[in-house]
């Protein structure tokens, strides 16, 4: 579906260097701090910016701007992009109907009603949540095989986030070959949705792991100086000094629970993964 081989993009004070593969039928998450390179990676995949080196392949198409036939297969929701604030949902409906031969008119109408998106109201009068729901609905309304979503739930309350996540789950359930690439700062969204996670830091992938493995096997050991000195560090992948001793990030939580019952072992989720691996755990 998507491959990036030794792709590099250099800016004045930042360089992105990525190799990854996103197969058909997967929900993949990009995580990392602001400025890590997640949005740049998405723009490279979409052909919105050109790489300085390396190869990008999307639906078998290599390099450059994506041809119209490939664009028809992709649904996109970018936080900084959208329709004119002077448009209404009805205007959006007509634009989509012209852009996409497979635009699902009845589906779009039904979801607008279910999501309480008024057809006659101008988008400038929409709340943040309404705009976010419309962006995602637009992306899934033409039977796309691939969704690319940049922070689709950012700044939303729990109810609006759940409505968007339900839309995405429904979209996947309709065809198991469909694929989603999503970025988010909200770990619970990714933990409940994604099959695998790429952690991007300072323009590089520093970890790629299945979400289930992160939740079931990763963890944080909190140890004092003496415990750290005698600790088997074979399964420790990151260590940070703390006032009490050390926080140790492990990809084998059970090993330490079984062999070191005297130390504190906490479950590690995506938040802990990001914080520990990028130097921000507290």
TrEMBL record:
Name the domain of life: Bacteria
GO MF annotation list: ATP binding; ATP hydrolysis activity
Q: Which UniProt keywords apply?
A: ATP-binding, Hydrolase, Nucleotide-binding, Transport
Question: Recorded E.C. number(s)?
Answer: 3.6.3.-
Among the Pfam families in the record, one is: ABC_tran
Give the InterPro entries listed for this entry. AAA+_ATPase (IPR003593), ABC_transporter-like_ATP-bd (IPR003439), ABC_Transporter_VariousFunc (IPR051782), P-loop_NTPase (IPR027417)
Query: Could you confirm whether the keyword ATP-binding appears in this record?
Result: yes
Q: Does the keyword ATP-binding apply?
A: yes
Domain ABC transporter intervals? 2-227
Q: What is this protein called?
A: Daunorubicin/doxorubicin resistance ATP-binding protein DrrA
Which organism was this protein described from? Lachnospira eligens
The gene name on file is: drrA_2
């Amino acid at each position: 579906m998507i491959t990036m081989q030794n792709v590099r993009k250099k800016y004045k004070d930042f360089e992105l260097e990525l190799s990854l593969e996103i197969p058909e039928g997967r929900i993949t998450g990009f995580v990392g701090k602001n400025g890590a390179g997640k949005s740049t990676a998405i723009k490279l995949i979409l052909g919105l910016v050109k790489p300085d080196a390396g190869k990008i392949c999307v639906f078998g198409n290599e390099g450059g701007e994506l041809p119209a036939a490939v664009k028809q297969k992709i649904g996109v929701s970018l936080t900084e992009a959208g329709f004119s604030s002077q448009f209404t949902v009805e205007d959006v409906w007509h634009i989509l109907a012209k852009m996409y031969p497979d635009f699902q008119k009845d589906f779009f109408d039904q979801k607008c009603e279910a999501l309480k998106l008024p057809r006659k109201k101008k988008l400038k009068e929409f709340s943040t949540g309404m705009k976010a729901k419309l962006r995602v609905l637009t992306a899934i309304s033409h039977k796309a095989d691939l969704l690319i979503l940049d922070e689709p739930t950012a700044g939303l309350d729990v109810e609006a986030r759940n409505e968007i996540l339900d839309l995405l789950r429904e979209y996947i359930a309709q065809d198991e070959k469909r694929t989603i690439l999503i970025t988010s700062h909200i770990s619970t969204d990714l933990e409940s949705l994604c099959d695998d996670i790429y952690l991007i830091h300072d323009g590089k992938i520093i970890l790629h792991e299945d979400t289930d493995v992160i939740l079931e096997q990763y963890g944080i050991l909190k140890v004092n100086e003496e415990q750290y000195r005698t600790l088997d560090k074979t399964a420790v992948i990151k260590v940070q000094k703390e006032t009490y001793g050390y926080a140790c990030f492990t990809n084998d939580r059970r090993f330490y629970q079984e062999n070191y019952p005297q130390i504190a072992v906490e479950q590690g989720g995506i938040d802990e993964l990001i914080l520990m691996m990028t130097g921000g755990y507290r």
